[in-house]
Structure formats: structure tokens, C-alpha cells
Amino acid sequence: MSALSDYIDASIGRKPLSLLIRNCKLLNVFTGEIYSTSIGIYKDKIVLVDDAPNRKEVEKVVDADGMVALPGFIDTHLHVESSMVTPYRFAEAVLPHGTTTAFADPHEIANVLGKEGVRMMVENAKALPLRLKFFAPTCVPESRAVTAGAEITPEDIEDMLAWEGICGLGEVMDFPAVLSGTSKMMQILELGRKRNSVIDGHSPLLTGAELNAYITSGAEADHENFTVETALEKMRLGMYVKLRGPYLLDTKKFVSAIEKLPRPWNLIFCTDDVMPDNLEKWGHLDYIVKSFIKAGMDPVEAIRSVTIRPAQHMRAYELGAIAPGKIADLLLVDNLENFKVKKVIASGQIVAEDGKLTVGLKERKFDVRAYKSVKLDKLNIEDMMPDMPVKQGEVEVNAIDFAGYTKAEESNFLDIALTKLNRVKIKVKDAQPELKDIALVFVFERHGKGAARSFGFVRNLIKRGAIASTIAHDAHNLIVVGKDRNDMVMAANLVIESQGGISAVLDNQILAHIKLPVAGLMSEEPLHEVAKEMAKLRQAFDKMGVLDHPYMPLPCLLTLSVIPHARITDRGIFDVDQQSFVYPFITEP
Fold it and tell me: Helix, strand or coil for residue 379?
């Protein structure tokens, strides 16, 4: 790192610039203006923004030919694990799209490997051109209804907050614990407040006094925004509202509502979970920015939502703008309509051009301790036999129902994801249920914490075959859903043998199998290889009649015990509203 005097000398002309970008149009995030200028960089910092710099000694000159210069994009809420690749591979994938900084919540791997899993992510992300930092996960496990591979304690939080590479407290998704003031949650929040750490939020459906109480706890931002009304309420109460892509919300409706506000400041874009095929096909933050501009948002406001505002929110004041003294993270785009990222500069180095990485990233292996996380023996047909209360006849069951599903609107994800508990009558023959309009679901604890197994019934999720997955938010046990027990056994054993992943089987034929041996969540293959396998999985889902969504396959969320209204974990069917377990069979009075 150069001395401060070196930067000053380069700024004033006593030292040659490392890089001079001429003939660009600068989008100034401070004033909202767009004007022609040149940008001078020394080492890793911007030292000069001048329309006619008289510099003869420059190490490298780039003629922008009228392209628009923007600050590097900053993502303040995402889960690297959802891309199904490791941090190093993730950096390869997102840098060409203009994302130069990301603040990720590693609670997925933390649920498998605990604090050491977080450390593995931090280590794998070191010295990358992508500035990748991590939140300390606050809700591991996500609730008392699950068995995770580890627990993050207040003592762990205190330790992690002192690590280099940790940027704050991750999304506080256990809002019932916040509202009831549980001891563990209060300790964690107090640790964050004491350090003036960023505290990321997660408060779907909260409103009124409950939302006020949640914000009072210290949570300062929330990405769980599906309706205009709840988003505006959070903005008015001072939260940073983080909006995700058009596959989750109606961008035109949000833009129309936001335009009625007199210059709101606390609006940010983020990606949250981006599946590998979508990342390759659509892009990253650039896709979200482009979508909101297309929906009618002022381009300047859209760019501010991925640059200066995220930087302010994360206390990263050296980022988010093209100005003297800022880190030299910037990109050149053809224009603000087509929005093709032509060149990406990170810390003063050209790292990508025309959608391709131009620097070689040294391959780095993940920590070997992450490779044996599926602690399950091979399963057999008996493992897929539910314990029925009668051998012959009819029983009434509590079925988890995805009744809100429609294919008409991809943006109605919340309606799709919300489940209900419905009473369903099923016939029993030879002590086993006849699976007509319902499917079986099993969850196997896979962390070596007691080998619990639960079963239940689900409707409107799958029509044929079987799926097995160790991506089963957030505890990431093994979930198996299906209509045919032989297919279920085959799908489950494929995943167990590959030490994690997702498989789809129909009529004893393997339609897709994504191998994810790193903590059962990630692959070390390049993104395009994993994206190819994800595309096969989508095709299998279509053939099998599986409820899917661009944001995330719904079977992966069936186990998430903090989303209303009914879920299933390794401990049983869980009524999220009542915070209690439900017996699969309804006992008549």
C-alpha cells in the first residue's frame, strides 16, 4: 500500500498516474449529473477527476470513447452458497457484471459447519479482485424447530466480529425471538450495537407496532419486501429497503410508488439468492439495475441504489463513488439503456472486458473439513415408509399445501412460497398411503446430531418421480420428496454418495444430479459447469411437475421454519404461526 503522500503527488502531477481513463461520461452519484471528464487512478485509488488533465506521464491510458463511467456495484445482501459455487468461483462469475464489492451472509454454511464454516468462507475469499466480506450469522439454527449442524452462540458472534473480513451482524431472521426478547437474541443484538456494527434485517409480513419493535432492536435494513405498502412503511421508519430482482416483485408497481416520494434516500438493490443458471443467463446486480431502469426508474437513482447508498449503509465510505480518495472500483457501460458492462476496474486494475474476466485467479481449494458433511448411511425402501396408524382404510392427515401456486406471475413469489396446513383424506392399503394428489416428504438429519427422521404429506409440489436435496434451508438436512418410493430411495442415495447436492429421479431414471460436495452446498467447478447442471434440473422439474421458481426451487424452502405458515424439519411438521409441531395424522375427538 502506498503512502498518503504518494497519492497526493500523483493527484497533483508529481508522480505518474497508473491509469488514465479519457473521454468518458461520468455519472456523479453526489449531484446526479452526467458530464464528460477524465479519471486518474494511482495504484488502487482515484486521485483525479478532471475534464482536461494535462498529464504526459501515465502508465496506461484507456479511451472510453464516450462510454458512461459508474462506480463499482455493491451488493449488501446475498448468500454466495446459493450460487452453488465457492467464493473464488463466485468472484469469477460476478466481476464481469460490474459487481466489485459484496457483503455476504454465510449462514448457509454456518448451519452445516458453524463458526469454522464462516472462517472457511473468509479464507477462500481472501486476496480476490472482488472485495468480498461476510456478516456474522445471527440465527444458527434459524429456530428451535430444526437440528442444524452447529449453533452460533453470542460468544461466537463476539469472536467473529473481531475477525478481519467480518462486516456486521447477518440477517436477524428469527423475528419472534426479537419480539419476545429471548436472552440469546438480546445478547447478540447488544454485541452488534455496542460495536456500532451494521445489523441486517429480515422481517417479512411485520407491520405496525411489531415492525417498530423490530427496528428498535437495531435492525437497519431489510430485503424481505414483496409489497409496495410494507416497503414504504419500512422506508418511512428509517430502514434501508433492499429490493431484489423482477422475478420476485412487480418492478413497475414499485417504481410508480417510489416516484411519488420526494427523493427517498434509503433504497438499495441486492441479489440475495441467485441460482447458478440465472447468474449465467441474466447477470448479477447489473440485471436488477437494468430491470428497474426499464420499469421507468430514473437511471441516476437506480445507480445510486447499487453504489453510494450501499456504501453508506455498510459504513464503507471509501467506496460507492468516483471521486478523489475513493477506491478505484468503477465500470464503463455502453449507455444507460442497453446497459452492457464493457469494462470493469477493481482496485485500479482492469479485471474484465466485454463480459469476460481478463485476470487469472489462482485456483484455491476449500478447506478439506467441508468435504464429509453428509453423515448418513445408504437408505433403503423401509426408510421411505411412513408409520401409518392403520393398515387398511382411510385416514385424515395434515398436508402441507402449496395451494397459492399460479404460473401466470413469476413475481408473486410470496404467494407461491406461503404454505397452508390443510386436512386431506387419504386411503391406506397394506399399511401404506395411496399417493394420488399428495406426495410423501421425509427429512433426514444429516449432520451426525442424532439421525432424527420426520415425515409428512405435501400437496401441489410434485406430480411424478422424486427429488432429494441437501440444500434445504436453513439447516440443510436431507429432504426427499416424491410420489414413488423407489425413486425416492434412488434420489436420496445419489445425494448421499456425492456428499451433497440435488437429484431428480423419474421411473428409476436419473434426470439430473448436481454434485455439491463442499458442505453439501457448493461445487468447486466453474459457474458455467454448475449452471449447465442446474438447467438440467429445471428441465427435470418441468417433466416431473415440480413446483419451481426462477428465484429458488420450492422444495428447497419446504424446510425453512421461519416462513409462514407450515414447514417440515427433521423434527416434524411445524406450524410457524403457532410456533408448535403438528402430528401428521388428525385424531378425531
Answer: coil
Q: Are residues 316 and 376 in the same domain?
A: no
Contact indicator for 495, 370 with CB cutoff of 8 Å: no
pLDDT at residue 405, rounded to an integer: 54
Asked if residue 379 lies in contact with residue 49, where contact means CB atoms within 8 angstroms, the answer is no
- Name the residue type at position 273: D
CB 577 within 8 A of CB 563: no
Q: What is the DSSP letter of 110?
A: H
Task: Indicate the burial class of 487 (C-beta count within 10 angstroms; 0-12, 13-18, 19 or more).
Answer: buried
Nearest in space to 478 (alpha carbons), one of 433, 445, 434: 445
287 shares a domain with 413: no
Cβ–Cβ under 8 Å, residues 292 and 339: no
- Pair 238, 386 in one domain: no
Residue-wise pLDDT for 135-148, tens only, equals 999 999 998 999 99
Strands 73-78 and 99-104: parallel
Contact (CB, 8 A) for 245 and 239: no
Q: How is residue 221 written as a grid cell?
A: 435494513
Q: Which of 587, 555, 578 has the alpha carbon at shortest distance from 397?
A: 587
Q: What is the largest CA-CA distance in the chain?
A: 91
In this structure, what C-alpha cell is assigned to residue 538?
A: 429445471
Q: Which of 258, 290, 320 is the last residue of a domain?
A: 320
Last residue of some domain: 320, 348, 363? 320
pLDDT below 50 — which residues of the chain?
Answer: 408-411, 589
Q: Model confidence over 471-524: pLDDT tens digits?
A: 999 999 999 999 999 999 999 999 999 999 999 999 999 999 999 999 999 999
Per-residue pLDDT tens for 113-138?
Answer: 999 999 999 999 999 999 999 999 99
